[in-house]
UniProtKB/TrEMBL annotation:
Superkingdom in the source lineage: Eukaryota
Protein name: DNA-directed RNA polymerase
Keywords: DNA-directed RNA polymerase, Nucleotidyltransferase, Transcription, Transferase
Major enzyme class: transferase
EC nos: 2.7.7.6
Any one of the GO BP annotations: DNA-templated transcription
Domain RNA polymerase Rpb2 residues, every copy: 97-161, 198-250
GO CC, alphabetical: DNA-directed RNA polymerase complex
InterPro entries the UniProt entry points to: DNA-dir_RNA_pol_su2 (IPR015712), RNA_pol_Rpb2_3 (IPR007645), RNA_pol_Rpb2_4 (IPR007646)
Organism encoding this protein: Onchocerca flexuosa
Recorded catalytic activity of this chain's protein: RNA(n) + a ribonucleoside 5'-triphosphate = RNA(n+1) + diphosphate
Length: 250
């Protein structure tokens, strides 16, 4: 709405600072969570059916545990590359690939490859073009030919992808640094020009009247090793916001 009214410029959807990469650990965690919930629900159904009978024999729950359910699901997903997670409505093909050991360079290329979820059949130049925001993070020249050109890229050799870190230390530090909980304030305080909104991983944590103190405190604590080294913080004076990120995939 602000861009339509001319107050701000439109965001670039291909800007790499707003994107997150899905790592192998997060994908495996989603798959394991889905299979484990299915394992528990199946075990609960068997227990309810057995205990519902009045003359039923003593229930030995261990005998009804399918010990190979989780193993077979993980092995099948890694072997075929088909990632089917019903709880999250995720169906993907080719998630896992065989690692090529032809040379050291080919190993590096396979292990640092990034596949875009954009449809390869669409002839759109935006997602395929080289973005200035990719400077230092992606290799500008290593991309395949054909319909995958620009959609399959490789990380730069010096780049590093962040993993998820705990939010609780950051939240405690924010409240100790003068951030007021948004639940304890009147809704009109958000529109007060004296306040800055504090976001942590896209979620409103609270409001502050001294954003520079928040930024300097987080950076000082991070440099002393008391916070994760990849916790980032920045301010936006036009939006009256303080953005803090501790999530993975950056």
């Amino acid at each position: 709405m602000q861009a339509e009214m001319g107050d701000t410029e439109c965001d670039d959807r291909d800007f790499y600072g707003n994107k997150r990469l899905e790592l192998a650990g997060s994908l495996l965690a989603l798959l394991f969570e889905d299979v484990f919930k299915r394992f528990n629900s199946e075990l609960k159904r068997i227990a309810d059916n057995s205990l519902g009978k009045t003359l039923a024999a003593p229930l030995d729950i261990v005998k009804h545990m399918r010990q190979d359910l989780i193993t077979n699901a993980l092995v099948d997903a890694l072997a075929t590359g088909n990632w089917t997670i019903k709880r999250f409505k995720m169906e993907r093909q080719g998630v896992t690939q065989v690692l090529s050991r032809l040379s050291y360079i080919s190993v590096l290329g396979m292990m640092t490859r990034i596949n875009s979820t954009f449809e390869k059949t669409r002839k759109v130049s935006g997602p395929r073009s080289l973005q200035p925001s990719q400077w230092g993070m992606l290799c500008p020249s290593d991309t395949p030919e054909g319909e995958s050109c620009g959609l399959v890229k490789n990380l730069a050799l010096i780049s590093h992808i962040t993993t998820d870190s705990d939010e609780k230390p950051v939240i405690r530090l924010l409240y100790n640094s003068g951030v007021e909980d948004v639940k304890s304030l009147h809704f009109s305080a958000i529109h007060n020009p004296a306040y800055h909104i504090v976001f942590l991983n896209g979620v409103i944590v609270g409001l502050t009247i001294d954003p520079q103190r928040i930024v300097s405190t987080i950076r000082a604590v991070r440099r002393h090793g008391l916070l994760n080294e990849f916790v980032s913080v920045s301010t936006n004076a036009a939006q009256r916001s303080v953005y803090i990120a501790s999530d993975g995939g950056r």
